[in-house]
Design a protein that fits this description.
By secondary structure, the chain is mainly α. The protein is built from six helices and no strands. It has one domain. It is globular. This is YeeE/YedE family protein.
Length: 142
């Protein structure tokens, strides 16, 4: 049952990304091109997502536990540190350069474009590189 709901959630998300046109990196890049061919549609997609998310959270937080899990996975740290700021900046730069958010790139794999695969391979390589560097730093410090 848990797998079926995960699949349905992914299907709804991917369909929304496709219908909104967010699988096209030009649409995302045009949002950032304020002085040129600015396209505000990404702001409307994000606004719609915020409304749905806000409504969903209001319903979910009324429950004691999630339907398919033992407890809610809530971050415990409220600290804004250099890792958070650096990671956010890197994410934003990658989004602005490639025109893809990783969440939108996954459904875009269905388009068969090599650029999408290259982007996601780069994301996975970056995650792996971070893990290797973090382990190396931990060993050096300890």
């Amino acid at each position: 049952m848990k797998l079926m709901f995960a699949w349905l959630t992914g299907l709804v998300f991917g369909t929304g990304i496709a219908i909104s046109g967010m699988m096209d990196p030009a649409k995302v890049l045009n949002f950032f091109d304020i002085a040129g061919s600015w396209d505000p549609s990404l702001a409307f997609v994000m606004g719609g997502a915020l409304i749905v998310t806000f409504s969903g959270y209001r319903l979910v937080w009324r429950r004691d536990a999630p339907l398919f899990g033992g407890s809610f996975q809530i971050p415990t740290s409220m600290i804004i540190d250099s890792k958070l700021i650096g990671g956010s900046a890197l994410f934003g730069m990658g989004w602005g350069i490639a025109g893809f958010c990783p969440g939108a790139a996954i459904p875009a794999l269905g388009t068969g474009r090599w650029e999408v695969a290259l982007f996601l391979i780069s994301v996975v390589a970056g995650i792996y590189l971070h893990r290797v560097l973090a382990k190396t730093a931990t060993r050096a410090a300890g």
